[in-house]
Amino acid sequence: MAGILSIPPPITVLLLLLLLLSSEAFALRAWREPTLTTAKLNPSGAPAPSLLTESKRYEGSSDLVKLRYHMGPVLTNFINVHLIWYGSWSRPSQQIIRDFIVSLSSESNPAGGKKPATSTVSNWWRTVQLYTDQTGSNVSSSVRISGEFHDYRYSNGKSLTRLSVQYVIRNAVTSSRGALPIDPKNGIYLVLTSPDVQMQDFCRAVCGFHYFTFPSIVGYTLPYAWVGNSATQCPDTCAFPFALPAYMSGKTVALRPPNGDVAVDGMISVIGHEIAELSSNPLINAWYAGEDPTAPTEIADLCEGVYGTGGGGAYIGQVLTDGAGRQYNMVGKGGRRFLVQWLWSPVVNSCVGPNALD
């Protein structure tokens, strides 16, 4: 497992900086233009909007995907999520995110004492638990929020880079105002930036990414992830399928967010993506496909855009709709609903999710 490390020599630091700044690795990429199927026709003969849930494609199953274990650690003990709220956040937005993270653990009962439904966030997390380390120990079933730090003063400004986000973490663990604990063994640090904060490559190339901190900056090797709120910058890119690119207008219908917040409901899937990959590949030397460690394809990358049976290409697959017409595919704490992408299963070699129809 990651621990307290000595400061590496200058050449090592330089190489790590180059990997971090020059690569799109370890990131949930911004949604890109899909290949659309032939549109249906209205009685008038004009193309009718199609649904994002109509595909009959199979969800990414392939014998060609060579997901391999590279002998690094995975998070097998209880997982402590340390939240860093960077910028200005509303309480309702924060609570949606908290409820999702708490729902990951099998210890939580999303039905509030009733028999849990099959399509739950904790059942989604069971796919992550299939991944093991070299001792055969599985990723932990216990995920909990162990601390929160509110950086409402924008300690590193409103324009961040992939490197400066590590200074945000350093500030959070050294602040005289309720600092987060140093937790290199069981902790992951989740930096969430508010809508008015710009991040290097945000919208253009990524919606979120994960890596680990450099001892030369933070003093420790700490797995972390960043996810941005796209409300005012690129909801059509990073809050898909609740917002659609302009070129899709009239061709498809955007889904209605289950919690009524396009940007935050969009963030939920990105957060799930990054936490799943942090847990199964925290130091970028555990589970991934491909031979290049600077550009790994991880367990969530393989299933981007797949949310239900039939998902693939331009379609998210078949999902559920509540009484208000809002779409979701899993239930969490207190019955709160979420729409979260599926994950790659090492057992069946395909994308799987708790709402599968087959």
Describe this entry's structure for a reader.
By secondary structure, the chain is an alpha/beta fold. The protein has one domain. The chain is built from seven helices and 18 strands. It has helices at 10-22, 91-103, 121-128, 164-174, 215-218, 235-238, 262-280; strands at residues 27-29, 40-41, 47-48, 67-69, 79-86, 143-151, 159-160, 187-193, 198-199, 206-212, 223-228, 287-289, 320-321, 327-328, 330-331, 337-338, 343-345, 350-352. The strands form seven sheets. A six-stranded mixed beta sheet has the order 1-10-11-8-5-6, with helices on both faces. The protein is globular and about 50 Å long.
> Strand percentage, roughly?
15-25%
Based on CA atoms alone, the radius of gyration comes out at: 20 Å
Number of domains: 1
Number of discrete helical segments: 7
Shape: globular
Low-confidence stretches: 1-16, 31-50, 54-61
Quaternary structure of the protein: single chain
Structural class: alpha/beta
What is the element string, with H for helices and E for strands? HEEEEEHHEEHEEEHEHHEEEEEEE
Mean pLDDT: 85
Summarize this structure briefly.
This protein has 358 residues and is an alpha/beta fold. The protein has seven helices and 18 strands.
